[in-house]
Amino acid sequence: MAIARALIVDDEPDIRELLAMTLARMDIDCDSATNLEDARELLNRSTFHVCLTDMRLPDGNGIDFVGHIQKERPQLPVAVITAHGNMESAIQALKAGAFDFVTKPVDLAVLRNLVETALKLSLEQHEARHELIGDSPAIREVRSMVAKLARSEAPVYISGESGTGKELVARLIHEQGARAEQPFVPVNCGAIPPELMESEFFGYKKGSFTGATSDKDGLFQAARGGTLFLDEIAELPQSMQVKLLRAIQEKSIRPIGANEELAVDVRILSATHQPLAGLVANGQFRQDLFYRINVIELYVPPLRERSDDIALLADHILARLAAGSGRQFKLSSAARQTLSNYSFPGNVRELENILERATALCDSDVIDAADLRLQQIPAGTGQADADRVEDNGSFTDYGDQSLDTYLVDIEKQTIMDALEKTRWNKTAAAKLLGISFRALRYRLEKLGLE
Ligand SMILES: Nc1ncnc2c1ncn2[C@@H]1O[C@H](COP(=O)(O)OP(=O)(O)OP(=O)(O)O)[C@@H](O)[C@H]1O
Q1: Which residues have a Cβ under 8 Å from the Cβ of 248 and sit 6 or more positions away?
Q2: To 10 degrees, what angle do helices 108-128 and 13-25 make?
Q3: Per the database record, which ranges form the Response regulatory domain (predicted)?
């Protein structure tokens, strides 16, 4: 499946064909227009990652189209194709906002380079945009809290069920605040082995232990001037809770093996899906640290309490999946209804997973209720996968690759099973799978299920 989509605007059939063929070999889908009117129409209808336009078109000028894209789709990189030696118009196009140009006759190696750069820009920009989608009173309240908290330096503790958007909220607090130009460093406290925690957080000096062949910065140094987001903070072992408390109180750290304290200016945001106050009450989490990190609590409500947002979120997620696959997806009205009746124990992350699975399995571009597979609890993993092997001829030819993919699929399916059975409670799912919570987090990350 192509990962990107290009818009080609040229009235010469030979050039259109040459460009489309070259891009197709780069696994890029193309739409072509022979004039500006058609090009504008296509731009309105589809999501593109790069645009190549000729300068002289039957109904206008390529530079006007560059201007149009700048206004309507400022994220879309556009390059112009100019006549050989016509530097004047190439410069004009760059001034109008084109990111580059190619001259005719088109040198294919130059074209490929240019398109690769454009795609990198385009896909990176896509990833960099964070937005809290939703129009319900609950999410509006979260949005207005985010705006207020972004103006403050206070530590914020973000609570809420798994997959509600706690990390997204933390990123937004950072991005909308004075530290936006500095790093945002997310740390999954559940994924760091306890014995490595101190060196991961505070770094070490060369020679401080076997294997410390050079100085290494820790997460606090990496987040200097910015924000350190401590996700799953309830997973911190007691010994580390003491050290963290000290770092927050003193605003300084001591790397392993260092003689001196090091001042670090870092804003601390933290989160967990576990009831932290309860863990404090039964002695599993230090009360003094709780008071430090929980100066302000921001609660992100579960998706079932803002079901009006489901349709908006689904459209947003489908648009993102479309950008990645070059296809456009729509939900049938029955599918919309099914989604809005569902309780989403795994919250927005579960909605993302459901839609990703549906778009991958759905043959047409209209996703119907059945494609969502909401009623279906996956069957016993072994049998389900064994059936799939028989159905799929390519598995009979076991290359290393197929076997790996097969095993990864089984692992994914088993974990998804456990998560669905435990209504997305990761602690319970880990117990069911007979592995530690930490090991589950590690696997989720490795398999891209986070
Ligand atoms: N309101 C929203 N608008 C757009 N995307 C959202 C929204 N809420 C959550 N998401 C998306 O859902 C996914 C899960 O969100 P996130 O990782 O922030 O949840 P979380 O509460 O931190 O989960 P966990 O407790 O498991 O760490 C992410 O891809 C995030 O971008």
Answers
A1: 155, 268, 289, 292, 293
A2: 60
A3: 5-119
Go through the chain and tell me how many residues it has.
Answer: 450
- CB atoms under 10 Å from CB of 71, counted, come to 9
Give residue 183 CA to ligand 1 midpoint distance, Å: 20
Q: How far is the CA of 420 from the centre of ligand 1 (A)?
A: 17
Report the C-alpha gap between 277 and 284 in whole angstroms: 10
Instruction: Report the candidate in 228, 233, 240, 244 with the shortest Cα–Cα distance to residue 280.
Output: 233
Q: What confidence score (pLDDT) does residue 423 get?
A: 76
Instruction: Please spell the DSSP secondary structure of 395-448, one letter per residue.
Output: GGS--HHHHHHHHHHHHHHHHHHHHHHTTT-HHHHHHHHTS-HHHHHHHHHHTT
Question: CA angle, corner 295, sides to 292 and 300, nearest 5?
Answer: 120
Nearest CA, atom 18, ligand 1: 165
Q: Which pLDDT score is estimated for 384?
A: 35
CA angle 9, 11, 12 (to 5 degrees): 115
Tens digits of per-residue pLDDT, 290-310? 999 988 999 999 999 999 999
Q: How far is the CA of 97 from the centre of ligand 1 (A)?
A: 34
153: its two tokens: 């330096």
Cα distances (angstroms) measured from residue 154 to each of 30, 266, 298, 330, 353:
49, 11, 12, 42, 34
Per-residue pLDDT tens digits for 55-71: 999 999 999 999 998 87
Sign of CA dihedral 309, 311, 313, 316: negative
Please state the pTM of the whole predicted model: 0.64
The answer on pLDDT for 76 being more than 90 is no
Q: ipTM of this model?
A: 0.98
Q: Residue 3: its pLDDT value, please?
A: 64
Query: Which protein residues touch ligand 1 with a CB less than 6 Å away?
Result: 132-134, 139, 160, 162-168, 231, 273, 313, 316, 348-349, 352
349 CA to middle of ligand 1, Å? 6
Q: Give the angle subtended at the CA of 136 by the CAs of 133 and 139, to the nearest 5°.
A: 55
pLDDT digits (tens, 9 = 90+) for 24-35: 999 898 999 999
Q: Ligand 1 pocket test: which of 167, 172, 440, 449 has the largest number of ligand atoms within 8 Å of its C-beta?
A: 167
Atom of ligand 1 nearest to the CA of 316: 4
Reported as type and span, the H/E element at residue 72 is: helix 62-72
The Å distance, Cα 157 to ligand 1 centre, comes to 16
Q: Is the pLDDT of residue 12 over 90?
A: yes
Report percent pLDDT > 70 for the chain.
Answer: 90
Q: Going by C-beta distance under 8 Å and a sequence separation of 6 or more, which residues neighbour residue 247? A: 201, 202, 220, 253, 264
Residue whose CA lies nearest to ligand 1 atom number 30: 165
